[in-house]
Specification:
By secondary structure, this protein is mainly alpha-helical. It has 2 domains: 2-85, Alpha-Beta Plaits (2-Layer Sandwich), CATH 3.30.70; 97-130, no CATH class. The protein contains 5 helices and 2 strands. It has a two-stranded antiparallel ribbon. The longest helix is centred in the N-terminal third of the chain and has 15 residues, at 5-19.
C-alpha cells in the first residue's frame, strides 16, 4: 500500500546493504493508482511497486527470501507472474479475488491446456490434465 512504502523501502535498502553488498542493480520504485483487475498487485488500492533485481546468472532466492518478509509485513502483494518464493496459499491470502479467478479459469480451461507447470502449481490444478 502507498502509505507503507517508505518504511518498507528503508528496510529493504538496509538489508541489501548489509547482506548483499555485491548487488549492483538499481531498485525500481513506481507509484501506481488502484485498479480493478482481480490478479493485479494494485487491486483496489493505491500502491507503490518496489522492484528488486539480481543479475540473471546469480541465485535470486537468498535475497528474495530476505526481502519478501519485509514487503509482506508492510502489506505488499508480490506479483504472482514474476520471480518470487510464494506458493498458491500465500497468493490466496494476498489477493482478494484469487478464488474468483480460479473458478473462472477452471470454467474456461477445464483441461488445463493453457497451463505450464508453474501455473498449474500456482492455480492448484491437481487432477486437471496439463
Amino acid at each position: 500500500p502507498r502509505e507503507n512504502w517508505q518504511a518498507a523501502f528503508r528496510e529493504i535498502v538496509s538489508v541489501v546493504e548489509a547482506q548483499f553488498p555485491e548487488v549492483f542493480f538499481p531498485f525500481e520504485v513506481r507509484f501506481v493508482k488502484a485498479d480493478d483487475a482481480w490478479l493485479s498487485p494494485f487491486y483496489q488500492r493505491d500502491s507503490v511497486s518496489i522492484a528488486v533485481h539480481r543479475f540473471f546468472e546469480e541465485d535470486y532466492q537468498p535475497m528474495f527470501a530476505a526481502l519478501e518478509p519485509i514487503l509482506l509485513r508492510h502489506g505488499g502483494r508480490p506479483h504472482w507472474g514474476k520471480l518470487n518464493t510464494l506458493k498458491s496459499g500465500d497468493f490466496r491470502a494476498l489477493y482478494p479475488r484469487w478464488q474468483d479467478f480460479l473458478e473462472v479459469r477452471r470454467s474456461l480451461d477445464p483441461g488445463g491446456r493453457f497451463l505450464n507447470p508453474y501455473l498449474a502449481s500456482l492455480f492448484e490444478t491437481a487432477g486437471e490434465k496439463t
